[in-house]
Batch of 4 targets.
Target 1
Amino acid sequence: MITPMRRNEYRIVTTDSEKQSNWRTEISEAFRTPLELLTYLGLVDSELGTKADSEQEFKMLVPRSFAAKMKAGDPNDPLLRQVLPTCQERETGEEFSKDPLEEWPDDQATEGLLQKYRGRALLMPTAACAINCRYCFRRHFPHAPPTKESLHKTLEAIRSDKTLKEIILSGGDPLILRDESLFSVIDTLSSIPHVKRIRIHTRIPTVLPSRITENFIDKLESHQAEIIMVTHINHPNELDAETDSVLRKLGQTGIQLLNQTVLLKGINDRTETLVELSEQLFSQGILPYYLHLSDKVEGTQHLCVSVETARKIFRGMLRELPGYLVPRLVAEEPGMSSKTLII
């Protein structure tokens, strides 16, 4: 049962047996146009200069549970700015492109499998996400839902390549898959002797926490695979009592929880904000892992933070935090053998 509350609240009242269907319902009821979201928050379009729905190549998608964390009436809310399409997306410098990391699949031998670094490969079992972040570096990526045949071919390619020690599930967001589909992939990967670790990259715990059902927790806890989950959380306002409950349950399964954050102009580009984020992450069982400079993808220029500003923010974090709470400041460059540390 979905229970509407006052404008800036939204919660799901469930029994355990209802949860599987309810998170799917949340996706179907997500905000998909700027007007819907702005009306919900008591804002008007003239304050923000949004892109009309017909002008959006990369469509808006915002679950109501995530929107409920936004401050009503605040056009500068840091969660709103992560997801609201604006006319600033038309501003693009020469160094910005649709494929800044050169990931597009034209040169990929196997559909849905991307290898950039030695010993690791990225498997994209879905093109779908629970939320469309405006800074997404794959916002122009020619995603196509994998077929059973193409997924089988991809998994067989992994089986035949004994240099692969770790498989990273990304996309899209792998947790948008139903449990049966997701664990079918995990089961197959864990049966391959040379695959030592499976890493899941996801926004789900903070943008759609109802997806983390008891059934999902049970399957994760009983699995023999070495699983690492990398959450993608950019601002302390994304964390609350509900995420604390979900993340603690995930941690109790024995998996390692790490977080990566994208440094975004006007959203989290202050030392104080990122210090608070690291503290809150650790209090909810997550270790800060990476602080990324945003990739220079077309349509995201207004969100990019300069290297000089990033260094200044990072030095402030070093002063304020113990070393284990300071994520590595990195950038990703095409053709490099690893991420580039910014020091």
Target 2
Amino acid sequence: MKKVERFKDKIIGYCYSKEYKLIEKELKKYKDIKVPSTVCNLPIYLKNNKDKIDYSTYEHKGWFVGSGAIESSNKVIVQQRLKQAGMRWSVDGVNYLITLRCCQESGH
């Protein structure tokens, strides 16, 4: 697992320094590995989103970089209300309820 952690840290470091070419170079080492279709294609993701990946600026502004805040919000806003025993929801019903929960939690 240490190898995976080192790889992850290296890629994140390249994201912070906007070294996207180095990320592409690093990923080419693993081009022959079969990745499940449910896993994000990182080279394509970076190509399409590198103008939105500016971790150092985001942190300097005090914005969240990781997904922890989003996952926590999902738990507080969505799961606490929608995953109670015996509940069934339509797509429209869930969308309306989530909108109300977001308004309530954000104070709007």
Target 3
Amino acid sequence: MSSAHSLQNNSQQNQSFDSVLHTENLSVYYGDFLALDNVSMDFPRKQITALIGPSGCGKSTLIRCLNRLNDLIDTCRVKGKVIYRDKNLYGSKIDPVEVRRHIGMVFQKPNPFPKSIYENIAYGARINGIENDMDELVERSLKQVGLWDEVKDKLDSNGLSLSGGQKQRLCIARAVALKPDIILMDEPASSLDPISTSTIESLIQDLKEKYTIIIVTHNMQQATRVADYTAFFNAEESEKGNRYGYLVEYDKTEEIFNNPQEKMTKKYVSGRFG
């Protein structure tokens, strides 16, 4: 293992924040192959944390561990802990479905249900046992993502008929309807045009007033625009020949980009590799 792995626990020594979620010695395997090695980090409450790094460094693997979406991959095996509300989310008595109510996910490609705009919000709420006034819930959720005025007169239209940016905001509205604590976002703007990307970024910043947000992005400029904290991951080849990811450095975003402590971080954010 690279000596860089020992650096990850030093990168937060000067940070002081209210942590809502943290990992302890988290490693992920797909079959016999290591995908993510020994990650320990804290995520601050009602802040935006960006995960950056080259392809194959484990960013998406990590974010899918945080609400147990990796459970859906048969070959996936997780070691270590993910602690939320003082409970290890990988404990034997933890219900993954309940975990995903508190820790929502927005994916890279917008994935509305093939249902009406109204039902995209209401259906997800119903199957999760929410029995609120659905009209109020749908309106409030769409207003939170700035979509209400654009769709209020066509709530019966299929969600798939919306533009790419509108679809992604609908998916975010579907997530916030469940009133999660945390929203995970895996490259939520990578398939969108610049104007839609700007809209999503503004929305993400607005949402941190109520939610903790963890975002995977390949776009370093996006990280500097939206994130309060940034974690830089790198990848290297194991003895078995596969690439695995590890955390190099984690700090306030301005420190990562303007005053990184690790040479590898400095090379990456200056565009010299990756």
Target 4
Amino acid sequence: MSKKIVLPEITFFLMITIQISAQNLPKISGLVFGDYFYNVKHNINQDSDINGFQFRRIYFTTDFKISEKFSTRFRLESSWQNSNFNTIVRDAWLKWNGIFDGSDVIIGLSPTPAFSVSEEAWGYRFLEKTILDYNKIVSSRDMGLDLKGNLTSNGNIKYWLKIGNNSKSGIENDKYKRYYSLLQFNPTDDITLTAYFDYASSGRIEDGFTNSFKDNNSIVTAVFLGYSYNNFNFGVESFYCKIENNFYKSLTSPLTHQNSYGVSAWSHFRLKEKLKLICRIDYFEPNTDLSKDENTLILAALDFIPDKSVHISPNIEIVTYGSGDPDIVPRISFYWKF
């Protein structure tokens, strides 16, 4: 009696196991990074003399190969926002691989072209964002449609086009869109060059001085140069942003364009097998028509790598401003992925 019950159950289990093994299983991965920080001094006085442990970001990612033609990613992100630990959808996209020779199409919530290449070359997102992301010039994600691939057979020249809602990870609430483009050149294995441009359309805004409605569209251009040789890495990135009719110079002047720019230079190199030195400096001018609004970021760090997937980094970040006190924050940052 027991054999009649057990044998069919074992047979059924083996059939299910074989069937599952024959299929593509999802790839599960993730990462975590945070710090022990101490605000020695802060531009906002009430934030000075604060210290503690914090998670700055947690990713949980599922990648799945649906078929030879289609693949997908779903990623959740948890981070501190407004003193609470919130979880949002970071990525949710479907890729049509090789929709035509050398090119893929992606639809859904996915990365923007603005700094994906430079961030990968920088390699230390767990210490700090790249300059476009840090100063909130372009969002790292947007809901839309991407076309990306190779312009040459050897892959030395790549392109990336995207049309998005320009609503970051939020829902769309207007008819306006953002149009992104990127060209990437790799003349050698050691050198990466990118040229980026985007145009964001926007609704017209009222000029209180002239009692008329004016355009409020924006453009962003950026270039990046990265060099990597043996244990030495170097990068420099610069951008320019123009927002039409975005501020008043004075109470007696009409709306005028806001122009901003920034430049970032960084380097990291291996001191020993499990130890690296990282240096970076950024300069950001939010509005060329205003004085004493600029800021400079200085970052210095050591990266101890006890395992290829684990990093422990004592570092210090200093931000100086055109006016007011600087931010001085020594940290011990940690990062692991799985």
